[in-house]
Design goal:
By secondary structure, the chain is of the alpha/beta class. It has helices spanning 13-23, 36-45, 62-72, 87-96, 107-119, 127-138, 153-163, 168-175, 179-193, 198-207; strands spanning 5-9, 28-33, 50-53, 77-82, 100-103, 124-125.
């Protein structure tokens, strides 16, 4: 019987090697990637059914990477494997198209089950947050509690790279745009968010989960 092909994406090599050892008895590991931009490029070339991805990754975080991937391959299943046990991150993950949300410390007991559920077309939510998340939706509350969605996908890309310390020139090279366009996006975001300084913009990036520390 042909094994389901799984891609792993996490910027910590020890994590991905542990995941490989956990999953290889049942699944074929089709690739391991350490940043979100490499993951998006790889998915276009790799025939895989499932992605296991962290939220916190350099160059492009896991949630924004999955948004792009879902536009390319809407049927691919995505399991977020993360250290973030709060509803804000889980909400964004499922809005991006996730089929599962598992905490890293629960991976040995939950990840294989989450992948099987995703393959069947079902949703898996780690029990630690499942009750709170479902109650929030039932009550009509917004677990995000911020206005991150006011930014465009391109603005979020620029903001993450700025927050990671890249210069306008470096960002332009990564995104294939001019440094002047990078600066335009930066000041447009500050205007939209009513922020007066670059430091305030970077603080917003952390608070909204676009980049984590």
């Amino acid at each position: 019987m042909k094994k389901v092909r799984v891609i792993l994406a996490d910027d910590h090599r020890m994590v991905t090697e542990g995941l490989r050892n956990l999953l290889e008895p049942e699944f074929e590991i089709a690739g391991i990637f350490e940043d979100g931009r490499a993951l998006v490029k790889a998915v276009q070339k790799t025939h895989s059914e499932v992605i296991v991805v962290d939220i916190s990754m350099p160059l492009l975080n896991g949630i924004e990477a999955v948004r792009q991937i879902k536009q390319i391959k809407p049927d691919i299943k995505v399991i977020f494997l993360t250290m973030h046990p709060d509803m804000a991150y889980a909400t964004r993950a499922f809005e991006a198209g996730a089929s599962g949300y598992v905490l890293k410390h629960s991976a040995p007991s939950e990840l294989v089950s989450a992948i099987h559920e995703a393959i069947k077309g079902r949703i898996y939510i780690t029990p630690v947050i499942a009750g709170d998340l479902m109650q929030a939706y039932k009550d009509g509350l917004d677990p995000k509690q911020d206005n991150a969605e006011i930014l465009t996908p391109r603005q979020k890309e620029v903001l993450q790279l700025l927050a990671e310390g890249h210069s306008a020139a470096e960002i332009g090279e990564i995104l294939c745009i001019s440094s002047r366009t990078v600066e335009f996006h930066k000041y447009k975001m500050m205007e939209q968010l009513n922020l007066k300084t670059s430091a305030a913009l970077l603080g917003y990036a952390i608070k909204s989960g676009i980049v984590t520390v």
